[in-house]
Amino acid sequence: MLSEFKKFIMRGNVVDLAVGVIIGAAFNKIVTSLVNDVLMPPIGLMLGKMDFKNLHFDLATNVRINYGAFINTIIDFLIVSAVIFLMIRQMNRLRRKEEPEQEEPAPDPTKECPYCISQIPIKASRCPQCTSVLGGEAVPQPQA
User: Fold this and answer.
1) Are residues 107 and 116 in contact, defined by beta-carbon separation less than 8 angstroms?
2) What is the 3-state secondary structure (H, E, C) of the chain?
3) d(CA 29, CA 49)
4) Which of 40, 76, 121, 127 could form a disulfide with 113, with the two C-beta atoms 3.0–4.6 Å apart?
5) Which contacts of 73-78 are long-range, i.e. CB under 8 A and separated by 24 or more positions?
6) 126 in Cβ contact with 134 (< 8 Å)
């Protein structure tokens, strides 16, 4: 059981996923700091020295809805989504450049006999099924 677990963990896609999650968490911290510490203070200043972190309304004595923090989280989400979209878009462009262009399929090497409707090689001058002469003036064969 331990060896199976080791094989599972060491597979490439599991390790890639773990690295992606760790980098994603670190990136999320950077974007959260960007929103809270860099973007929102000037926006709050333009809106009359408003601090979005402290925007809230009270429903009851100990019940508070912090819609300012929610606004920060939405902006945070939009920035992360936009960056991920741009990264995936660029990766798809690079992948398309690496893939060789698909060649057109070769023409069909067979043709249809006009007499017996069987498939025969395109270079054939006589049908192997009904023995009819093909190409040019074809002479119909007598029926047996």
Assistant:
1) no
2) CHHHHHHHHHCHHHHHHHHHHHHHHHHHHHHHHHHHHHHHHHHHHHCCCCCHHHCCEEEECCEEECHHHHHHHHHHHHHHHHHHHHHHHHHHHHHHHHCCCCCCCCCCCEEECCCCCCEEECCCCECCCCCCECCCCCCCCCCC
3) 25
4) 127
5) 75/35, 75/39, 75/40, 76/28, 76/31, 76/32, 76/35
6) yes
Alpha carbon distance 77, 75 (integer Å): 5
pLDDT digits (tens, 9 = 90+) for 100-116: 666 777 788 888 888 88
Phi-psi region of 109 (alpha: psi -120 to 50; beta: other; left: phi over 0): alpha
